[in-house]
Amino acid sequence: MSNIIYMDNAATTRVDERVWDAMKPYLTEYYGNPASIYSFAEQAKAGVDQAREIVASGIGAKPQDIYFTGGGSESDNWALKATAEAYKEKGKHIITTAIEHHAILHTCQWLEKEGYEVTYLKVNENGLVDPKDVESAIRPDTILVSVMMANNEIGTVEPIKEIGVITREKGVLFHTDAVQAFGHIPIDVDEMNIDMLSASAHKLNGPKGVGLLYIRKGIKIRSFIHGGAQERQRRAGTLNVPGIVGFGEAAKLAFEKMEERSEYERRLRDHLIERVLQEIPYVRLNGDRDKRLPNNANFCFRFIEGESMLILLDREGICGSSGSACTSGSLDPSHVLLAIGLPHEIAHGSLRLTLSDDNTLDEVNQTVDALKAIIERLRSMSPLYEDFVRKGGEA
Ligand SMILES: *Cc1c(COP(=O)(O)O)cnc(C)c1O
To answer: Annotated catalytic, 326?
Structure first.
């Protein structure tokens, strides 16, 4: 599939060849169970230990505070459900935002059915949470604040450090879903006062089905998967050794080249955004212009139905998305776009293009050219657009 233009890196990424090379021996050679006593298992155990050290050092954490999981969704579920349970004597109030990933939102909805109360903070028109809103939402019975580090749809990067100051001062636990941020932008769990953090390997050129939850030492949180004594008795199940080693290698590469990579992606992204805004009428950029992930562009085109646009882009070999991969297939517009105040009919015409350092300027230009033609064609078939133009076309 060399002729595709892949611009859906927020949904998942390609496994880097170096990551795959690092993983391979752990499938066929060092296949021992790291919990076993014999020396043959030591290679596997060493691979996991090394990966734990790499992912921990990348976010300023201690290796013993990293717990490997089966992905970002599991980490989010664990962080919320287990702290809710462990701290229910203190209170049953949780604070999150309206723009979280469904791994957080649907978990919160489940907790509400279990008798917890959840405050969903509003965001501004760019998707930013106001730390003051966090502060005023905290009550004596608040046990947890969970705010994502970077939004998976519109790329907005939240003021995590400012929120961390507040939660620390108020003595409330702070979790962040950093699945889109980990390995992409700088993170320091101490500097940001983060108590728990979720990440997932497949969003940084690692394998799917492996993630981590960072849990600061001293936090009462019960195990989520019951069984064996793996992960200091907090997450049972034979370790996914090749996946964890791949996660470690992907993290190593990501942290090493973070600056260079984000600079490259930002340049492509800005070119993409500028061309789209200049060359296509009746379009808006969603998300904060500056406080955004280096690789994210998200637009709404008026008089366009997102799905038709994606299908036509697909015919040109271009992979993009409308909303998030998790909601595609449903007809509801993205909850994130509604939360930033867009009306349904505009939210329906959204397109998310998320780049990687595999993309080239040439691909960006090809994509904008294709997009221009597609938008023109779809609008020419829209009676609403025709009507709008006839009335003088003022927004
Ligand atoms: C992808 C994603 C998840 C889910 O991670 P999986 O490893 O796919 O389960 C959670 N939160 C955010 C922000 C994501 O982008």
So the answer is: yes
In the reported structure, the alpha carbon of residue 385 is separated from the centroid of ligand 1 by a whole-number distance in angstroms of 36
The pLDDT, as a whole number, for residue 62 is 98
CA-CA distance, 348 to 361, in Å (whole number)?
A: 28
pLDDT digits (tens, 9 = 90+) for 3-38: 899 999 999 999 999 999 999 999 999 999 999 999
* 250 three-class SS: helix
Span 143-172, average pLDDT: 98
Q: Which of 12, 106, 176, 180 to probe ligand 1 with, by most ligand atoms within 8 A of CB?
A: 180
Residue partners of 288: CB distance under 8 A and separation at least 6: 126, 127, 128, 155, 156, 157
**Rounded to an integer, what distance in angstroms lies between the CA atom of residue 203 and that of residue 180?**
7
Ligand 1 contact, 100 CB (< 6 A): no
Is 147 touching ligand 1 by the criterion CB < 6 Å? no
Binding site membership of 70 for ligand 1 (Cβ less than 6 Å): no
pLDDT 10s digits, 196-248: 999 999 999 999 999 999 999 999 888 889 999 899 999 999 999 999 999 99
Helix ranges, the chain (H):
17-23, 25-28, 42-58, 72-86, 102-113, 131-137, 160-170, 230-233, 241-256, 258-279, 306-315, 335-339, 344-347, 361-380, 383-390
Tell me how far the alpha carbon of residue 201 is from its chain's centroid: 11
Kindly state if the Cβ of 72 falls inside 6 Å of ligand 1. Answer: yes
Instruction: Write the residue with the smallest CA distance to atom 12 of ligand 1.
Output: 179
Q: Which residue has the tokens 């702290």?
A: 83
* Whether 210 contacts 246, CB under 8 Å: yes
Mutation choice for ligand 1 from 179, 205, 247, 327, CB with most ligand atoms inside 8 A: 179
31-77 pLDDT, tens digit each: 999 999 999 999 999 999 999 999 999 999 999 999 999 999 999 99
